Amino acid sequence: EEAAPAKLPNVVILATGGTIAGTGASTTTTIGYTAAKVGVDKMIESVPELKKAANVRGEQVVQIASESMTNDVWLKLAKRVNELLAQKDVDGVVITHGTDTIEETAYFLDLTVKSKKPVVIVGSMRPSTAISADGPINLYNAVLLAGSKEAVGKGVLVTLNDQINAGRDVTKTNTSTADTFKTPELGFLGYMQDNKPHFYRLPVRKHTAETEFDVSKLDKLPQVDIVYGYANMNRVALDADVAAGAKGIVQAGVGDGSMAAQMLPAFREARQKGVIVVRSSRVGSGIVARNGEVNDDKEDFVVSDTLNAQKARILLMLAMTKTNDTKKIQQMFYTY
Ligand SMILES: NC(=O)CC[C@H](N)C(=O)O
């Protein structure tokens, strides 16, 4: 007599679009294809191996290329993930997503999901119709990971290219290659290999069930924009954002978030109007230290610590749903 098969976990796949759901004109089309074409049921059907990894079912949340991701979709997604994970018969959630803003959605959910159950975000760099498409293996790995005991309590995870990255720290580093997702310097958490996750390190910042953020009753987020730093920088973009009602501004500054002499008065004016100013860096790794090249105590600015500008924007939006106190906001940047 055959042994009874092990009980499979229940994993829900929330589809949002992207290249993983993309189709091209031919098997060699890897540029100039259409993202967000294939619906979630068809995507699941096209990877029959998923049935060996979990009991899967899909929901189409939106069908977009992720450069068009919005705060509204994030709120909808976070609420749906929380509803699903509160159910006894759901063990984990996979989100299929375009790669351009995976790192942002991953951090947003890392701060707003209220569960220890696994949440795994996955995408692909080649469309579903391409030779050696990476979507099917990435999706298979994501479902295995979301159904695994090992992923419980580790925060929102991102898997592509057989690697597992932490939602807080992962970033897209190459415009087109399949190994684009990296956690610069700090390193990824582990591998997907031989049908299971292998973890070697853990994120230490607070996430998911441990955070103070609750989006369940929110239907919008405060306007926070990013101003990019460069030589010969001028204040036009900053002033336009403030005039357009930005409540917070993140500077993706040069170096360690230093501020051009001609920009300091402009940021100071923004702060005097109540805008929260966060200094981040365009460099891609490292700490933006408080009272380094700018006297943040005197200017009443906040520093992003190691968050890149797009992730600092997310934390600032969520922080401002709780407080406008820059000391408390700064503490959040050292906590999450
Ligand atoms: N590889 C991708 O997923 C990129 C496709 C598209 N720009 C998106 O982010 O959705």
UniProtKB/TrEMBL annotation:
UniProt entry tagged with the keyword Metal-binding: no
Active-site residues from the entry: 19, 19 (o-isoaspartyl threonine intermediate), 99
Keywords, sorted A to Z: Hydrolase, Signal
MF GO annotations: asparaginase activity
UniProt GO BP: asparagine metabolic process
Protein name stated in the entry: L-asparaginase, type II
InterPro entries: AsnASE_II, Asp/glu_Ase-like_sf, Asparaginase/glutaminase-like, Asparaginase/glutaminase_AS1, Asparaginase/glutaminase_AS2, Asparaginase_C, L-asparaginase_C, L-asparaginase_N
L-asparaginase N-terminal domain sequence ranges: 10-203
EC number of the protein: 3.5.1.1
Domain of life per record: Bacteria
Residue positions binding substrate: 66, 99-100
Membrane-spanning ranges: none
Family named by the database record: Belongs to the asparaginase 1 family.
UniProt-listed PANTHER family: 60 KDA LYSOPHOSPHOLIPASE, L-ASPARAGINASE
Record's keyword annotation contains RNA-binding: no
Domain Asparaginase/glutaminase C-terminal residues, every copy: 223-333
Top-rank EC class of the record's enzyme: hydrolase
